[in-house]
Amino acid sequence: MNILIISAGAVGAFYGAALARQGARVSVVCRSDYAAVKRDGYDIKSPLLGDHRFRPHAVYREAAECAERQDVVVLTSKVLPGIDRVALLRPAVGQDTAILLIQNGLDIEQEIAEAFPANELLSSLAFIAVGRGAPGEVNHQSNGSLILGRYPSGVTPRAERLAALFEASKVSCKLTDDVVTARWQKAVWNAPFNPISIMGGVLDTAQMLARPEHEAFIRKAMQEVCDAAAANGHALPPKLIDNMIAGTRAMPAYKTSMALDYEQGRPMEIEAILGATVRAGKRAGVAMPALESVYAIAKMIEGKKRMPDSG
Amino acid sequence: MNILIISAGAVGAFYGAALARQGARVSVVCRSDYAAVKRDGYDIKSPLLGDHRFRPHAVYREAAECAERQDVVVLTSKVLPGIDRVALLRPAVGQDTAILLIQNGLDIEQEIAEAFPANELLSSLAFIAVGRGAPGEVNHQSNGSLILGRYPSGVTPRAERLAALFEASKVSCKLTDDVVTARWQKAVWNAPFNPISIMGGVLDTAQMLARPEHEAFIRKAMQEVCDAAAANGHALPPKLIDNMIAGTRAMPAYKTSMALDYEQGRPMEIEAILGATVRAGKRAGVAMPALESVYAIAKMIEGKKRMPDSG
CB-CB: which of A290, A296, A301 is closest to B217? Predict the structure, then answer.
């Protein structure tokens, strides 16, 4: 199986390594670490996969350099207004190529489905803490599990095969025939916790839930996402919010991915995670006052980083 | 006229100096700068009053040390849940003493009126940028004007006399017979801008208005204050929000007083400025979704400062 990982940062390298361990022929397109990865491959440090070196079959700067036919093209870039995902994929997508998105956010598939209507489109949510160290160095901290399904619904033989490869490498990969509902479910946590975590320096999960009034506000925002999901035809389990709050409290305090991006001055997926959720809710006529407020403030904070003279 | 300034920080020293210049016998109660002020008085640096030394008639650590009868007791402390304003005033308030509050916030008078029902209560809003330098040093940067009236309404001869003293020292002091409406009016700006300014590091006024969506959110929050004011019987002028936005844009970008408090780790008047506004609106049945969101997030940020191990 020929697999090409496009925009292979830490996430792409991790899942690429998991597939390569099961014999898939995994190549990568990576720009920033190109020289180091071309020379030495990736230095994977992972409690799940074990520490090891992952040498891709081929390393490219751009997908256009890749002449081999690919069975699956995996896109692991961030979902940002400035990143043209269709252009990243285009050169590598052939007649029978399946596309797998391992990306955050809501409503991120439609643009790709419209650009490649004849190709199988798989969509996956990653629950993982992984980061980059020195060039080519990938530090996997925890979790790593995936939820994967065909977009807009169903499961395909290729999805099953990919899931089997991941599972064989100890990466939990749960197949779903309703990946859109799975994205809504993840948005219930992400849409409030991620942007609120960048307000006030950085707030960790314990700080966001420190007092009953804080939790009440977070719950209100989560409920808005549930209402929006239901209004869009994706009713979520009734105990979801309770379970997510309990689950968050059960873990040690941690910083969201957006908080880490904020701290390190990296672009934040505000539109994919929060903006898309607010828009989907409003299109369906759902009032989203808490999330709209969080969205407005998050955009001010994002805008500040681009302004000259900001403290 | 015997005047005692209680909790004389930079604000109290500035207005005390203005009154003393017109011959009022001004004493002060100050704790943190006591030794320096007792010895040398205040070193006032002010484009309005001129740079000069203000030597109070007497300097006390606590109001209880003051044996002289006072015509007016001026309270210039912050309005914070941890500060017992009645206890600060009590020892200095005699039978004929008028109380003047020069403090921020909404609904800050009632507690004082109930504790001293027989005394004349004056309430004043200060529009001033003034800070402390070394002990006893007061740096007045800009503005300084006051709005002053009797609580809950009206103007008294003593209010007129105080206003005349201030004006004689070039400190603009506008008398109002409806100081509660004046407080609502100030809350229209303060309740949104102050707490939003502490989100995302610190946001200055230009950053909070950088994009039309930002302004739209700020306007929504301001409108909620206007609605709450009207529902509480204090209808505000229809062009108020437009004028405040235009006025804010016309000034160079600046940091709110809450942003300065936040940066310097000082307590913030979140309850007096924002909490009281939200509560007054909700009591009157006004929906305050934007302000409630801002309030919830501001409390998380405030709470973070008190938690151990916060980054």
Answer: A296
Residues near B286 by Cβ (< 8 Å), separated by ≥ 6?
B224, B227, B228, B231
Instruction: Measure A296 CA to nearest chain B CA, in Å.
Output: 6
Q: Give the number of residues written for chain B.
A: 311
DSSP state of A210: S
CATH classification code of B2-177: 3.40.50.720
Determine the residue type at A259.
A
The reply to whether residue A202 touches residue B292, judged by beta carbons under 8 angstroms, is no
Output the six-digit token pair for B283: 């009591």
Ranges of each domain in chain B = 2-177, 181-304
Contact A300 B198 (CB under 8 A): no
Cβ <8 Å between A200 and B310: no
Return per-residue pLDDT of chain A as tens, 311 residues: 999 999 989 999 999 999 999 999 999 999 989 999 999 999 999 999 999 999 999 999 999 999 999 999 999 999 999 999 999 999 999 999 999 999 999 999 999 999 999 999 999 999 999 999 999 999 999 899 999 999 999 999 999 999 999 999 999 999 999 999 999 999 999 999 999 999 988 999 999 999 999 999 999 999 999 999 999 999 999 999 999 999 999 988 989 999 999 999 999 999 999 999 999 999 999 999 999 999 999 999 999 865 443 33
Which of A300, A305, A306 to mutate to test binding with chain B, by most B CBs within 10 Å of its CB? A300
Contact A208 B299 (CB under 8 A): no
* B307 inside 8 A of chain A by CB: yes
Query: Phi then psi for A147, rounded to 5 degrees?
Result: -120, 130
**Spatial contact of A224 and A286, defined as CB atoms under 8 Å apart:** yes
Yes or no, beta carbons of B301 and A199 under 8 Å apart: yes
Give the span between the Cα atoms of B47 and A103, in whole angstroms.
57
Phi-psi region of A233 (alpha: psi -120 to 50; beta: other; left: phi over 0): left
Alpha-helical runs (H) found in chain A: 10-20, 34-40, 85-89, 110-115, 157-168, 179-196, 205-208, 212-231, 240-250, 257-263, 270, 276-283, 289-306
CA distance B288 to B223: 9
Helices vs. strands in chain A: H and E counts, helices first: 13, 10
Beta-sheet pairing, A98-102 with A121-132: parallel
Pairing of strands A42-45, A52-54: antiparallel
Find chain B residues with C-beta within 8 A of A199's C-beta: 199-200, 297, 300-301
What residues of B are in contact with residue A195 (Cβ under 8 Å)?
none
Partner A, chain B 275-304, Cβ-Cβ below 8 Å? 289-290, 292-294, 296-297, 299-301, 303-304
**Which of A213, A294, A297 to mutate to test binding with chain B, by most B CBs within 10 Å of its CB?**
A297
Q: Which helix (H) or strand (E) holds A121?
A: strand A121-132
A4: left (phi over 0), alpha (psi -120 to 50) or beta: beta
Nearest-CB residue to A297 (from B196, B201, B289): B196
Q: Which of B199, B207, B217 sits opposite A200 (nearest CB)?
A: B199
CATH topology for A181-304 is N-(1-d-carboxylethyl)-l-norvaline Dehydrogenase; domain 2 (1.10.1040)
